[in-house]
Design goal:
The protein is mostly helical. Helix content is about 60%, strand content about 10%. Strands 1-2-3 form a 3-stranded antiparallel β-sheet, with helices on one face. α4 crosses α8 (about 115-130) and α6 (about 85-90) crosses α8. The longest helix has 22 residues, at about 45-65. The protein is globular and about 65 Å long. The two termini are about 40 Å apart.
Length: about 230
Amino acid sequence: MSGLDELQSSLGFTFNDPAILGQAFIHTSYTNENPGHQTGDNQTMEFLGDAVLNMVVAEALYHGFPALAEGKLTEIRISMIRQEKLAEKAADIKLGNYLVLGKGEEASGGRSKRNNLADTFEALTAAIFLDRGLDVARQFIMSVFRKELAAVKSGKFTSNFKAMLQELTQAEFKTLPEYEIIESTGPDHDKVFVVSVSLGDVVLAVGSGKTRKTAESEAARIAYIKLSAGQE
């Protein structure tokens, strides 16, 4: 556990129960290969951490940006804490270094896998919440996402719906969305593109815009919201 002392130092606080922190880094591959291991893995902690992250970020957006519509607040929240973003945050604080992995997962580069890093960030959030309470968990989350919240305040935060849709379809359907121009109208200086996004033979949504990129982003936004609503 000595390596976790370094992490606690970087976080700026220590845990009352180091075992809670330790469990946040135990990957299922390790417990599968070591059935006699006394503490559990971090899967249920991921579940709790996800809920804490959503609540704290939603609270920050609610109080910080009361003029924004519900749909926009939801869009920002989802974009801020999607898997790719959480993996980036985990990499920033080197959480992969502390993972306890099975031999197979270690050999396959598990310390740098995006899903492992994102899951570990959620588990760490849960560990902070369980051991130090909501106020400390909130301070941790707000510190980690201060740049994103500042970007929202300055109007510079943008949601990458194409990346969000790709993450969702990879996770849920094990396939990638495909985009196709189905129409372009108007003169060269003022064209309007209409683009469809599909999974296999199923068209998920259609979007339009002044550029192909804009049309693809709009199609991805509509498709993402549609698929997300279907998961609720």
